[in-house]
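Input sequence (206 aa), recorded before submission:
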Amino acid sequence: MSSKIEQMIDDIEEYILSCKSKPLAQNIILVNREDILDMLQELRQKTPVEISRYQKVISNKEAILNDARERAEALINEAAVHTNELVSEHEIMQQAYAQAQEIVEMASNQAQEILEKASEEAGAMRMAAVSYTDDNLGVIEDLLAHGIDVAATNYERLMTQLQETIQVIQANRSQLYPAGDDAEGVSDEGPADTQEPEDGQGPDLI
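Predicted structure, token format:
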């Protein structure tokens, strides 16, 4: 929408174009003095008002521009702060990730050390158990071997005693039949005539 000054200028321009030219002089026109003066007076009256309105618009534009600049600066500052926060958060996340990786690595190393130590301890316990069992079996083996030796010695001693007893029995039996006596009076049930010696003692028996 055009301003009043622009409208007045358009009206003056149309008025001038509508005026008749002076004969033999196309660049010179004949105008009504009162009409043109009235139009110019109206233009002169409206000009301050329009200028004031323009000044207000310009002031408003300046205010709008300043407000826009302030808003833009606030947005830029906010964006910068947010960017710095994001950068800080990113750095914090990187540090946290690095610390987490370090913790995971430390935990893995400790777990590996624990496993290795447990394996070593289990191996040592196994060797100790094997050694303990072997020692006990060795003791049992020695006891059994000693028992066998003792049993063998006792058996030989027993056999010797039995053999000596047999020999004594045989000697006693031989005394029942003195040398030179025949066996006519001897039946399967024993001697036919058994007389006791005068002294009342029989042969020496065991």
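Checked by second reader. Strands lie at 20-22, 25-30, 186-187, 190-191.
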